[in-house]
Specification:
It contains 20 helices and 12 strands. By secondary structure, it is an alpha+beta fold. The protein is elongated, with a radius of gyration of 30 Å. Bound molecules: adenosine-5'-triphosphate and magnesium ion. Adenosine-5'-triphosphate (ATP) binds next to helix 8.
């Protein structure tokens, strides 16, 4: 083994032929040659970093005002800065502020290490195994502070990749130059510097903001392979921010949907939740269809299209009014026609409707949860909303009152109205429930009396007929 001292670093190598160690001198021609060679390699390895000269946009030339930044985020930024660390707002919040949207959360990036951050803040909790993050807690509000991370090419030994080229470990600290190139899109890689209120742009993000363009950093196909969730993020940002996509980012997006097969079902569920809360769910679902990504996420029958369109535009309206959207309800809407198709098949074997729905749900939910993990409680809600479609057909005796008390009544009722609105033959039932729901106790009694009277002779006439799926009235 030969050791070459290069100032701060030592390089070890084993010569192929028998060198006599004692005879090697530091100024030996082979050593000089090797030194030169190693220096060239080192230079090549570090040169992309040195090439990254950022564009600094001073405060006077951009629109981010401190009054638009959450005061807790400002507190954290100032404290880090006063302690001598670099501190930046980064990611979605900078992007949203520049595009005129209200950010969901304010993320901070710094050169302070997690332990150093903890020492600065009493209200700090370090989380994460894969990569340590600091959470600074202000009551319910959490500000996330991340130490600059490095890109995989700069840290091969600390970073793991799966067989499919996906990054599975990502836990090495780096500089801001390293941090910027591991981010996904150029508009997500802008840094707001608390030291002078400027924006630091290493990758052309400001230009994309101006041109309203989505552009992956680096080679798009490679970046999608590294983390296929970026396919879904691309679609979500396109829909939510109402922007366009560059040709070179869109081309691989068209063809790489299969990569989502390698993403864990739990992570896909998290991404779907973000889509449901985005306020642009309808547009996102349309893009998922356009880019052949829909079937990677959902068991979806094209018969659901109209139902989905109406339901999702209602959902987006609710989100914009500051209300919430129930993921269980949205999953039910997406799955509904697949369930119904199964029910029709199962009923042909003579199984009663209620049991047929149960059986169809078992199959569909099993297939669905193989794609993305739906928590058990949410699965129960989906099941109840579907079963309610049948239970709402029982309108005699005390049954309607009991249904009004059912914890999922509102969701079941909403689905029934949507089904009627989108052409399923349940209009009479939906109108009846609308009326019953908004009536006084006396009116309700009258309605029940009428239904009882109307049903008697009808039932005798149709005794030999089999009930028909959830359409039974
Ligand atoms: P929003 O919070 O509005 O959904 P966001 O861009 O803030 O959008 P986050 O998931 O909060 O999304 O991520 C914060 C930042 O972390 C992103 O802006 C991006 O810079 C980086 N990031 C997140 N996910 C990835 C990823 N899969 N690949 C590369 N960078 C990512
Ligand atoms: Mg965010």
């Amino acid at each position: 083994m030969v050791c070459i001292d290069l100032g701060q670093e030592r390089v070890y190598y084993t010569p192929l032929f028998g060198f006599d160690k004692s005879k090697i001198k530091r100024d030996h021609p082979i050593i000089s040659l090797l030194k030169g060679f190693i220096k060239t390699i080192k230079k090549k390895k570090t040169s992309p970093k040195n090439k990254l000269a950022p564009l600094i946009i001073p405060r006077a030339e951009h629109t981010i005002s401190r009054s638009a930044i959450h005061r807790n985020a400002l507190k954290v930024l100032y404290r880090l800065n006063e302690a001598g660390f670099d501190a930046y707002l980064v990611g979605g919040c900078v992007r949203d502020l520049l595009l005129g949207y209200t950010p969901k959360d304010f993320d901070i990036a710094t050169n302070a290490r997690p332990e150093e951050i903890r020492r600065l803040f009493k209200n700090c909790r370090l989380i994460g195994k894969r990569f340590r993050l600091a959470h600074i807690l202000f009551g319910q509000d959490v500000i996330e502070v991340a130490t600059f991370r490095t890109h995989h090419e700069n840290a091969q030994e600390a970073q793991g990749k799966s067989r499919h080229g996906m990054i599975v470990r990502d836990n090495v600290y780096g500089t801001i130059e390293d941090d910027v190139i591991r981010r996904d899109f150029r508009i997500n890689a802008l840094y707001y510097n608390i030291a002078d209120y400027s924006i630091v742009d290493f990758v052309g993000g400001m230009q994309d903001i101006k041109e309203k363009m989505l552009h992956l950093i680096g080679d798009p196909a490679k970046r999608f392979h590294e983390d296929p969730v970026r396919l879904l993020r691309a679609v979500r940002f396109l829909a939510k921010l109402n922007i366009n996509i560059t040709k070179e980012t869109e081309e691989p997006l068209m063809t790489l949907s299969h990569l989502l097969n390698n993403v864990s079902a739990a992570r896909l569920f998290q991404e779907v939740l973000k889509i449901f809360q985005s306020g642009a769910t309808l547009a996102t679902i349309h893009l998922l269809q356009k880019y052949q990504l829909m079937s990677k996420l959902f068991i979806y029958s094209t018969a659901s299209k109209t139902l989905l369109d109406v339901a999702l535009s209602n959902t987006d309206k609710r989100i914009h009014e500051g209300k919430t959207a129930s993921p269980a309800f949205l999953f039910t809407v997406i799955l509904w026609h697949s369930v119904l198709e199964q029910v029709t098949q199962i009923e042909q074997s003579g199984m009663p409707t209620y049991l047929a729905i149960e059986k169809a749900l078992q199959t569909i939910l099993k297939q669905q949860t193989e794609r993305l993990t739906i928590p058990r409680l949410m699965q129960l809600s989906i099941r109840e909303i579907c079963l309610l479609q049948h239970r709402l057909t029982y309108r005699r005796g005390k049954h309607p009152y009991r249904l009004l008390e059912h914890p999922r009544f509102r969701a079941g009722y909403d689905l029934l109205l949507l089904r009627a609105q989108t052409g399923e033959p349940v209009q009479e039932l939906a109108t009846w429930w609308q009326q019953f729901y908004s009536s006084t106790p006396e009116q309700r009694e009258k309605m029940l009396h009428e239904i009882q009277r109307a049903a008697q002779p009808k039932k005798r006439k149709n005794r030999s007929k089999k009930s028909n799926v959830a359409y039974t009235q």
